[in-house]
Write a structure and sequence with these properties.
With 354 residues, the chain is α/β, with parallel strands linked by helices. The protein is built from 13 helices and 13 strands. Strand 7 and strand 8 form a beta hairpin. The chain binds NADP nicotinamide-adenine-dinucleotide phosphate.
Length: 354
């Protein structure tokens, strides 16, 4: 698809860890152009270079350093709003933008569980955009909100969806080892996380269980029907900077062999329309067969941080199969994932560009 005029976009929460990823990725995007950056009152009025304490690898885009950070009023000359706001702030702000006619692509959890708000990973459930007209009708707003899942859920569901489609998942036990960048900046205190593992992340286990059922669910007549999977999640914070690792044990209706599972995962690409989106990876799922992969430091950047790497696929003596997956939490699990959602909405003609 060729876009003759770039679509103007804005980033809310542009100074944070995920916001910085958005800014870095959008600065060189072929379809979208940043026209505004917004954050809290602490940052509003300052230029972006001064307001954002840069915490991610690579440099801030030089052209945007002088852009003055705005407050969160919905009067921005943009069509698409990327939200990297804390959830409690997003709860009030995102509807104000949808009401004012913007397409909001959110990374926050605030609206992920609403029955009329799609939670999307394009390769898995692009058809969930069918919920958008229902949302607009229910809420009487010309814009809409589309959400991206929690970063950990992304690594889980991308590994499971191809298997669920063919073998039908009934039960899942998942244990996470989540990177510290998942907690934003400054995040977890160094005295808490160095030389340590923290076996609790507030709200995370509930998010994983609920969002996995939503993402693997079906859409009928614009309504989502969650997948009926019994899930037990254990969430842990570990001293890794980027890249969430998860181990999974899975029970299926039709138990696949290890070879069948590998073959289904290797062949999975998603719909052709998705493969043509600028941020889409050639292979959304990479299967590694070495005994000691995937690992966050070695696998998180696969396919520009957009591929989920799956490995250690083997028999499980308790359920059917076990495996490990790694996802880059601030790329596929956050900013790049939301940008791919915006590309999908654009390709489907759901962005009002007039
Ligand atoms: P963060 O580093 O703490 O950044 C938060 C951003 O929101 C900053 O730009 C901050 O602006 C702004 N903000 C904070 N309080 C505000 C207020 N009261 N009013 C207006 N703006 C306010 O957080 P993050 O890690 O980037 O996460 C952002 C969102 O993405 C969260 O909802 C998070 O759950 C979600 N998410 C994060 C990840 C991840 O891996 N980190 C993955 C998926 C989803 P100031 O700089 O001006 O304070």
């Amino acid at each position: 698809m060729i876009i003759s005029d770039k679509i103007p976009v804005a980033v809310l929460g542009a100074t944070g860890a995920v916001g910085q990823r958005f800014v870095q990725l959008l600065a060189q995007h072929p379809w979208f152009e940043i026209v505004a950056l917004a954050a809290s009152k602490r940052s509003a009025g300052k230029c972006y270079a001064e307001a954002s304490q840069w915490v991610i690898p690579g440099d801030p885009p030089p052209d945007l350093g002088d852009m003055v950070v705005r407050n969160l009023d919905p009067d921005i000359p943009a069509k698409i709003i990327f939200s990297a706001l804390p959830s409690d702030v997003a709860r009030d702000i995102e509807p104000a933008f949808a009401k004012a006619g913007y397409a909001v692509c959110s990374n926050a959890a605030a609206y992920r569980y609403e029955p009329d708000v799609p939670l999307i990973i394009p390769e898995l459930n692009a058809e969930h955009t069918a919920m958008i007209p229902t949302q607009q009708q229910n809420r009487n707003w010309p814009g809409f909100i589309v959400t991206s899942p929690n970063c950990t859920t992304t690594g889980i569901t991308m590994a499971l969806k191809p298997l669920h489609d063919v073998f039908n998942i009934q039960q899942l036990v998942v244990t996470t080892m989540q990177a510290i960048s998942g907690a934003g900046y400054p995040g977890v205190a160094s005295l808490d996380i160095l030389d340590n593992v923290i076996p609790y992340i507030k709200g995370e286990e509930e998010k994983i269980e609920q969002e996995t059922r939503q993402l693997l669910g079906r859409i009928t007549n614009g309504k989502r029907e969650d997948a009926k999977i019994v899930i037990s999640a254990h969430a842990n914070r570990v001293p890794v900077i980027d890249g969430h690792t998860v181990t999974m044990s899975v029970k299926f209706t039709h138990k696949p062999s290890v070879e069948e599972a590998i073959s289904v995962l290797r062949d999975y690409k998603g719909l052709p329309v998705i493969q043509e989106l600028p941020t889409a990876p050639t292979h959304p799922i990479l299967v590694r067969t070495e005994a000691d992969r995937p690992q966050p430091r070695r696998d998180r950047d696969a396919q520009e941080g957009m591929a989920v790497t799956v490995g250690r696929i083997r028999e499980c003596p308790l359920l059917d199969l076990r495996m490990v997956s790694v996802v880059h939490n601030t790329l596929r699990g956050a900013a790049s994932g939301a940008i791919l959602n915006a590309e999908l909405l654009t390709a489907k003609g759901l962005i009002n560009t007039s």
